[in-house]
């Protein structure tokens, strides 16, 4: 057991967050499997995919998680993962974390997912939400959409408008100023400077979110998860019956290459997970199954 001086209240909050994220994982996996069942057989032949759940245990500290992996006919690759930890930051990481200078102990709980549809007409999506506490506590996360074909990569495209509306509703229920702030932060964060472009059409991104009201902040994080679970299946159902061309597929593969570049060069979550002793298989599952560069 890792020793910690963090108060019991923080440990209880971590357990509540962990329970929520694990329940959300179950619901999201079930919905993605329903979409696998519904996909038209002429475009997506074969048996519908099912998630393989792989528990794992941390090598340092206490905790672990469950990785959910799917290779299906509609979803070429999907990962829906949960994790939780009771551990201590290394001196290098403690220097970058609020409150860790007082005590490097921390607790965390999270859900993280990536979905890469087989069809270029259906967008890739990423979502994660998490709770982390040192001597200070906060939530972080967000969701962003990455259409694969050029005609869908406008902010005025139907999928982008629907996705942004869902994220705005989740924010507006708590503070009407949050959406504009977190949407702009998403565009800034998911930006590839060497390409001079954003990864997709955005969504929301927030970190170190702490209003001083844990219940409000936890409810907001739950609302983000609910918004994702509602809107992304709607987008996929709208797109999954559309045929695609070889040109569409090539656009998709190149766009996936951009995804790889961002995740390996710039994504702080990837770096945090690797440095904090997380599970490599789940951390790197965001990589698409096939990609291309031109």
Can you describe this structure?
This protein is of the alpha+beta class. It has one domain: oxygen-dependent coproporphyrinogen oxidase (3-Layer(aba) Sandwich). The chain contains 8 helices and 9 strands. The protein has helices at about 10-40, 90-95, 160-170, 180-190, 215-240, 245-265, 270-275, 280-285; strands spanning about 50-55, 60-70, 75-90, 105-115, 125-135, 135-145, 190, 195-200, 200-210. The strands form 2 sheets. The protein has a 7-stranded antiparallel β-sheet. Strands 7-8 form a two-stranded antiparallel sheet. A hairpin with a 4-residue loop joins strand 7 and strand 8 (about 195-200). The longest helix has about 30 residues, at about 10-40. The chain starts with 7 loop residues before the first helix and ends in an 11-residue tail after the last helix. The model has no long low-confidence stretch (mean pLDDT about 90).
Stretches with pLDDT under 50, minimum 5 residues: none
Based on CA atoms alone, the radius of gyration comes out at: 19 Å
Overall pLDDT metric: 92
Which assembly state applies to the chains in this document? Answer: single chain
Describe the structure using short key phrases:
oxygen-dependent coproporphyrinogen oxidase; alpha+beta; 294 residues; 7-stranded antiparallel sheet; two-stranded antiparallel sheet; 8 helices; globular
């Amino acid at each position: 057991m890792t020793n910690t001086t963090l108060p019991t209240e923080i440990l209880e909050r971590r357990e509540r967050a962990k329970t929520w994220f694990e329940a959300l994982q179950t619901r999201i996996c079930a919905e993605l499997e329903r979409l696998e069942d519904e996909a038209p057989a002429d475009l997506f032949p074969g048996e519908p995919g099912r998630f393989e759940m792989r528990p794992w245990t941390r090598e340092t500290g206490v905790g672990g998680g469950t990785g959910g992996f799917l290779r299906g006919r509609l979803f070429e690759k999907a990962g829906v993962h949960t994790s939780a930890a009771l551990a201590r930051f290394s001196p290098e990481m403690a220097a970058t974390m609020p409150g860790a200078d007082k005590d490097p102990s921390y607790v965390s709980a999270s859900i993280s997912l990536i979905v890469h549809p087989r069809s270029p007409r259906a967008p890739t999506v990423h979502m994660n939400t998490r709770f982390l506490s040192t001597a200070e506590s906060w939530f972080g996360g967000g969701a962003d959409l990455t259409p694969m074909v050029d005609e869908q990569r406008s902010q005025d495209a139907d999928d982008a408008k629907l996705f942004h509306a869902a994220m705005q509703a989740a924010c507006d229920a708590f503070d009407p100023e949050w959406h504009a702030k977190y949407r702009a932060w998403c565009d800034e964060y998911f930006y590839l400077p060497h390409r001079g472009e954003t990864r997709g059409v955005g969504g929301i991104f927030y970190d170190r979110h702490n209003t001083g009201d844990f219940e409000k902040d936890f409810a907001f994080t739950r609302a983000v998860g609910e918004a994702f679970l509602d809107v992304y299946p709607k987008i996929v159902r709208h797109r999954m019956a559309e045929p695609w061309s070889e040109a569409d597929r090539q656009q998709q593969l190149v766009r996936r290459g951009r995804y790889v570049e961002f995740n390996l060069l710039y994504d702080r979550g990837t770096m945090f997970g690797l440095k904090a002793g997380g599970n490599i298989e789940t951390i790197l599952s965001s990589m698409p199954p096939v990609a291309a560069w031109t």
